[in-house]
Amino acid sequence: MISKKMEQMLNEQYNKEVYSAHLYLSMCSYFLDRDLDGFANYFKVQAQEELQHAEKQFDYLHEVDAKITMMAIDAPPSEFASIEDCFEQTLAHEKLVTKSIYTLVKQALDEGDFATHTFLQWFVTEQVEEEATVKNLLMKLKMIGDNSSALYLLNDELLKRQLGPAA
Ligand SMILES: [Fe+2]
Ligand SMILES: [Fe+2]
After folding, report:
1. For 70, which of 36, 107, 141, 159 is 20 to 30 Å away at the CA?
2. Cα of 90 from ligand 2 centre, angstroms
3. How far apart are CA 125 and CA 74, in angstroms?
4. Shortest CA distance to 113 belongs to which of 1, 9, 8?
5. Which InterPro entries match (predicted)?
6. Residue 5's Cα: distance from chain center in Å?
7. pLDDT digits (tens, 9 = 90+) for 92-117
8. Quick check: is 167 in a domain?
9. Residue 130 in domain
10. pLDDT value, residue 25
11. What's the gap in Å between 21 CA and the centre of ligand 2?
């Protein structure tokens, strides 16, 4: 069993993961409209990963006999200023999610809830990877600048991204 407070925080985290999926699908659509299929693929896979995160939290809540409560999901932005803007917003969003995970970890430690603490470690590691990947892509976009052939190559590279199994 987990505490009511932890139950509520994990339900909120589930909601944030689903919001993340919607945010990245919104970005996917931005790239589809611009025929940048590689970038669109990158964000579609990113959205699928976020749904895997949500599912992990759903399953954990069920495992510990907690009550699962579906909440309204905020609408993500539907307009983006540029390719770089999408990645900057992604980085800012991932930093918020990292903070949210850290708050959960702290709560688990404060409560002596070592099972939830262990469960959350996967997300701590995942967030390091998520932020690093986005930072790397932002750096590449800055190097590309206005060079459309370089952008085409990056688009091709991003087309290869595939959804891995939910580790
Ligand atoms: Fe996530
Ligand atoms: Fe994420």
Report:
1. 107
2. 8
3. 26
4. 1
5. Ferritin, Ferritin-like, Ferritin-like_diiron, Ferritin-like_SF, Ferritin_DPS_dom, Ferritin_prok
6. 23
7. 999 999 999 999 999 999 999 999 99
8. no
9. yes
10. 98
11. 8
Domain count across the chain: 1
Residue-wise pLDDT tens digits, 127-152: 999 999 999 999 999 999 999 999 99
Query: What is the span of the domain harbouring residue 150?
Result: 4-159
pLDDT digits (tens, 9 = 90+) for 40-71: 999 999 999 999 999 999 999 999 999 999 99
Measured in degrees and rounded to the nearest 5, phi and psi for residue 104 equal -65, -45
Has 94 been labeled as part of a binding site?
Answer: yes
Distance CA 116, CA 107 (A): 9
Say if residues 10 and 104 touch (Cβ distance below 8 Å): yes
Ligand nearest to the CA of 53: 1
26 CA → ligand 2 middle, Å: 14
CATH code for the domain in which residue 147 is found: 1.20.1260.10
Distance 148 CA to ligand 1 centre (A): 31
Structure-block tokens of residue 3 = 């505490």
Residue 102 forms part of a structural domain:
yes
Residue 155's closest CA among 38, 33, 7, 48? 38
